[in-house]
Design a protein that fits this description.
alpha/beta; Spo0b-associated Gtp-binding Protein, Chain: A; Rossmann fold; GMP Synthetase, Chain A, domain 3; 3 domains; six-stranded mixed beta sheet; five-stranded mixed beta sheet; 18 strands; elongated; OCT_dom; GTP-bd_Obg/CgtA; metal-binding; nucleotide-binding; GTP-bd_prot_GTP1/OBG_C_sf
């Protein structure tokens, strides 16, 4: 087992995105030349890719923790940070990627098949990219997103056409060694075969692969012995060959009983629908009565053969040591494999379904929750969560930019509808990684009537009076002054006020 591992648990961490930078262009005679901060680079992904030269998962058994490089931060003079290189993990063909709960994420079959197990974080924007007509010189930049962390299970399921199944020491390894060029370990003690052995068999113009999988004991479907290893490696096989030892000296063992025990284990094991196709108990099965070179074994084989054929099984009496009955068995398996390949449905490529977002879809939800610490309001959505993670909360301008983005998205309006008031606790993000705010709603004090931020409607009136209008206004002003002086003079002549007053 030290050289073959068919199940591992990987702990993956993709690369973080690089931070954007806030920088101002400076040169001689131009000390404030505008923002020129570059963007951060994207973090590296972790990709699982099939490599024909890899036959085991042993490398990941010894090193289950893998991390991808981070993206580099941006720099001044509009220099963007370098992207983190993707970390490619080579796996054998037939590797199934699942979660801890058993959900199948990917079935990697064929050279070059790949699956992105963890995606790197986006790089943050520099202040050059954040500049606009209204925000000409941003004094902040966005932070890079953290990379995804994932825990996946890799299971190797052997890709073979024929699986040899049976009790330990039934002669499966010997049969593989004489049918193909494979040289598995052969010994006279139970559980000699600890790992699957593959061999290529040629019969006429047909070529197929045969797998000798670990031995089976009662209770294998429940994990006893090497049962799970046995059953995992027969999920993809088209034909199951029962190899029965007719020369065993163990008490309570006979060909009919051995076959019945194995069939019960096949019926109890339920393969995944995406991997095995039809259930194991419904696949083509052939019975091989082995060790016919022993006289007592051949006599027993000929005795039970009619009973097995009456049950509907195709029976072959062979001897791997004496090479008896192997030719008939080989051509029979080739015919079964050919028919199974013809009947196998060709999977059509999945159609790409485009589902555009509805016009009224906000892309986030506000949920009111009751916690031991009191009532909170949780904002869930990809964009709000990403924006919060990219915000530098030590920069007031960056916090204001975040508030503007959330307000434009409609978060504040939804919080008001949900019942939030000034001072309410608002959480943005999932439960295990949320940012907590004490919410203060925007106060409308009348300044909004002057227009959008950075504008003033009082400056929008650009009408200029004509020359005649100016002359008329001047004469009106002079006439009003002359009338005022005449009124004062008339009051003086009438004696309404004297020098003493």
């Amino acid at each position: 087992m030290a050289n073959f591992v068919d199940r591992v648990v990987l702990h993956l961490r993709a690369g973080n995105g690089g931070h954007g930078v806030a920088s101002v262009h400076r040169e001689k005679f131009k000390p404030l030349g505008g923002p020129d901060g570059g963007n951060g680079g994207r973090g590296g992904d972790i990709v699982l890719r099939v490599d024909p030269s890899v036959t085991t998962l042993i490398d990941y058994h010894h090193g289950p923790h893998r991390s991808a490089p981070n993206g580099r931060p941006g720099e001044g003079d509009e220099r963007n940070g370098a992207q983190g290189e993707d970390l490619v993990l080579a796996v054998p063909s037939g590797t199934v990627v699942t979660t801890r709960s058993g959900e199948v994420l990917a079935d990697l079959v064929g050279d070059g098949a790949e699956y992105v197990a963890a995606r790197g974080g986006r790089g943050g924007l520099g202040n050059k990219a954040l500049a606009s007509a209204r925000r000409k010189a941003p004094g902040f930049a966005l932070l890079g997103e953290p990379g995804e962390e994932a825990e996946v299970v890799l299971e190797l399921k052997t890709l073979a056409d024929v699986a040899l199944i049976g009790f330990p020491s039934a002669g499966k390894s010997s049969l593989v060694s004489v049918l193909s060029a494979a040289r598995p370990k052969i010994a006279d003690y139970p559980f000699t075969t600890l790992v699957p052995n593959l061999g290529v068999v040629t019969a006429g113009g047909e070529r197929f692969t045969v797998a000798d999988v670990p031995g089976l004991i009662p209770g294998a479907s429940e994990g006893k012995g090497l049962g799970l290893q046995f059953l995992r490696h027969v999920e993809r096989c088209h034909v199951l060959v029962h190899v029965i030892d007719c020369a065993t000296l163990e008490p309570g063992r006979d060909p009919l009983t051995d076959l019945e025990v194995i069939e019960e284990e096949l019926a109890a094991y339920v393969p995944h629908g995406r991997l095995g196709g039809i259930p194991l108990a419904e696949r083509v099965r052939v019975v091989v009565l082995n060790k016919a070179d022993v006289p007592e074994a051949r006599e027993l084989a000929e005795m039970v053969r009619p009973d097995l054929e009456a049950q509907g099984y195709e029976v072959h009496v062979v001897s791997a040591v004496a090479h008896q009955g192997l030719k008939e068995l080989t051509f029979s398996l080739a015919a079964h494999v050919r028919r199974a390949r013809e009947e196998q449905l060709v999977e059509q490529p999945a159609r790409v379904v485009v589902r555009p977002r509805a016009v009224d879809e906000t892309g986030f939800t506000v949920r009111r929750e009751n916690t031991p610490d009191g009532e909170v309001f949780r904002v869930l959505g990809d964009r709000p969560t990403r924006w919060v993670r990219q915000t530098d909360f030590t920069n007031d301008e960056a916090v204001g930019y975040l508030a503007d983005r959330l307000n434009r998205l409609g978060v504040e309006e939804e919080l008001l509808k949900a019942g939030a008031v000034s001072g309410s606790t608002v959480l943005v993000g999932p439960e295990d990684d949320a940012v907590v705010f004490d919410w203060e709603p925007t106060v409308s004090a009348g300044a909004e009537l002057l227009g959008q931020r950075g504008s003033d409607l009082r400056l929008e009136d650009r009408a200029r009076p004509t020359r005649s209008e100016k002359r008329e206004a001047f004469h009106e002003k002079m006439d009003a002054a002359a009338a005022a002086r005449e009124e004062l003079a008339a009051e003086r002549r009438a004696g309404k006020w004297t020098e003493e007053d």
